[in-house]
Amino acid sequence: MEVVEVEQEPDEVVRGLVARLGEARSGTADPEELLSALAQLRELREEMAGWEPELIQAARAAGASWAALAPALGVASRQAAERRFLRLHPETGEQTAEGRVHARRDQRAVERATSAWAQDNAAALRTLAARILALADLDNAARRHAARVGEALGGSDPARLVGPLVDIRTYLVHHPALAEQVDAVVVRTTRIRHEITTARRDGRG
After folding, report:
1. How many CB atoms lie within 10 A of CB 108?
2. Which of 40, 42, 148, 196 is a plausible cystine mate for 164, CB 3.0–4.6 Å?
3. What's the rounded Cα separation, in Å, for the pair 119 and 126?
4. Rounded (5°) CA angle 151-154-155
5. Is 107 or 200 the better-scoring residue by pLDDT?
6. Which of 46, 72, 47 is nearest to 58 (CA)?
7. Confidence grade of residue 92 (pLDDT, cut at 50, 70, 90)
8. How far is CA 74 from CA 56, 58, 135, 145, in A?
9. CA neighbor of 53 nearest in space, from 17, 85, 100
10. Calpha distance 120→174 (Å, rounded)
């Protein structure tokens, strides 16, 4: 049988499904209509899956707390409500309290890993910074960034060199060898961030 799909509003679909259910219970349902009803039910269920996070966001925007949302969502606590929302809508821009805790912990883990890498490569980072500071053709804007490189170089923590080196990269267009070395720093620190955050996210399930 060829089914001609007609766009229906959800309330119309629900009324039709209730009617088919009544027929099924009374034993008067047509098999083909039951199959059509099952297909409509699946489509409606898929559509409704997107309604819950949308309604949660709207409730939050209207001032509802996570504690108030918990019983409406059928969960026992504010934390469970937050977790449910993140599972349903992980790409949301809203960050829950639990999400903020995880983000801070992830950031600290990244900082520790980056610091450890910088300690292991302190000599190379300091040499790169010194070579950049020795450049005589930097303009005023580049000099301001170079000053930050110099401040970090004067400190005891090589990890403080990473940010200033990355920031001055734009001004090294006429020094491709140095730019390439800074790019290597960017690639390595970006990889560290990705590996740490991915591992921690996977560990949280």
Report:
1. 11
2. 148
3. 11
4. 95
5. 107
6. 72
7. low
8. 13, 18, 64, 54
9. 85
10. 29
Q: Which two tokens stand for residue 24?
A: 């099924």
Per-residue pLDDT band at 194 (split at 50, 70, 90): confident
Residue 129 pLDDT exceeds 50: yes
The residue among 160, 121, 163 whose CA lies nearest residue 145 is 163
Secondary structure of the chain in the HEC alphabet? Answer: CCCCCCCCCHHHHHHHHHHHHHHHHHCCCCHHHHHHHHHHHHHHHHHHHCHHHHHHHHHHHCCCCHHHHHHHHCCCCHHHHHHHHHHHCCCCCCCCHHHHHHHHHHHHHHHHHHHHHHHHCHHHHHHHHHHHHCCCCCCHHHHHHHHHHHHHHCCCCHHHHHHHHHHHHHHHCCCHHHHHHHHHHHHHHHHHHHHHHHHHHHHHC
Side chain identity, residue 83: R
CA distance linking residue 39 with residue 13, whole number of Å: 11
Residue type, 188: R
- Tokens 């006429």 belong to 174
